[in-house]
Amino acid sequence: MRLPGPLHVLNEGLAFLLEIAALAALAWWGFTTGGNMIVHIVLGIGTPAAAMVLWGMFAAPRARFKVALPFVLLVKAVVFGAGALALYGVDHTALAVAFAIVAVLNTALATADRDAAFRAAVE
After folding, report:
1. Model pTM above 0.70
2. pLDDT tens across 53-82, in order?
3. Alpha helix locations (H) across the chain?
């Protein structure tokens, strides 16, 4: 299913916002977890930094390594899932569920759209 131009742009924009939201949720969780200031700082900076590195290496449009789609989807599931769990961890259950649902729908639409574009290009 190929998305019409404006819907494609909106879905890609939403994907970017979801990526930023996942990083923000991981930082929020990190800065509020643990027993002392050092742990807060390490988790608050390190957790989103690890997610950024993982995303940039495998899931970004210009990823350092080109891997098969199932692995890209796995990386997205890990980062978005961690973002949802982080929101749950800071006691925002409804927001965590909403984030997870929107992330799954967005990723499914983007994957179907890219698959349709690829199929059209090879025909």
Report:
1. yes
2. 999 999 998 999 999 999 999 999 999 999
3. 5-32, 37-58, 69-89, 93-122
